[in-house]
Amino acid sequence: MTGKLEGKVALVSGSGRGIGRSIALKLASEGAKLVINDLDQEPADETIALIREMGGQAVACVGNVTHSDFAERFVGTAIQEFKGLDIIINNAGYTWDNVIQKMTDEQWYAILDCHLTAPFRILRAAQPVIKALSKAEMDAGQRVMRKVVNISSVAGLFGNAGQTNYSTAKAGITGLTMTLAKEWGRMNVNVNCVAFGLIKTRLTNSTAAGETAHIEGRDIKVGVNPGLMAAMEQTIPLGRGGTPDEAAGAVYLFCQPESDYISGQTLMCTGGLTGV
């Protein structure tokens, strides 16, 4: 590994499993110190153990990203434990699908709160910290670049039937990305977005497995019909869904120094799929 992120402090929401865990492991492998988040303690601890096995440093901030006190705790953990904040990855999320005439207000707001309001709150909480750090560095004649990577989806770029809530939230995150790229540029912060296509995680496993996600007292079914999954993969030029490690690689592109002059952009990580 290159150690390109040596000493950097990174927040990764939803990093107890799946894509988030792969992102955290990738950043740690390049030298970053991690604040790991999950709804549950056990998966967060598992990710931390993997990071420590490779000689890295990580701590947990367990909790629901939609809770009003979470953002301050998340940012505060980075400052308290590692005395800095350099990278923010807004990754936490899930889907709760329905066609619009059957979608309840509860479904609508649950997904918007997770995928759009939570990243907004985390970034709002981080702003005073980043501003103070940046000012001190500039006063000392230093230019230290910081990175924000928000996670969107091809559903947010092109829409997806049955996902009014999710598509709307993911479209919103691209607007948030472009706006903060303009607001935070003078603080030497790159703000970018990665829009994933089909990435294989437990959320896309076969529905026959009967998996659920337990969120706020609700057991939400996760998974994709095997026939639909096969049809989806046929539309991808590379002929397959991506892996969490491949998804993490796309995020890492925006975290390394080579991306220091790239901001306000959305990168599609889709295996060549350019529309839905």
From TrEMBL:
GO terms for biological process: monocarboxylic acid metabolic process. InterPro entries: KR_dom, NAD(P)-bd_dom_sf, Sc_DH/Rdtase_CS, SDR, SDR_fam. This is SDR family oxidoreductase. Residues 8-187 form the Ketoreductase domain. It comes from the Bacteria. It comes from Comamonas testosteroni. Belongs to the short-chain dehydrogenases/reductases (SDR) family. Gene3D superfamilies: NAD(P)-binding Rossmann-like Domain (3.40.50.720).
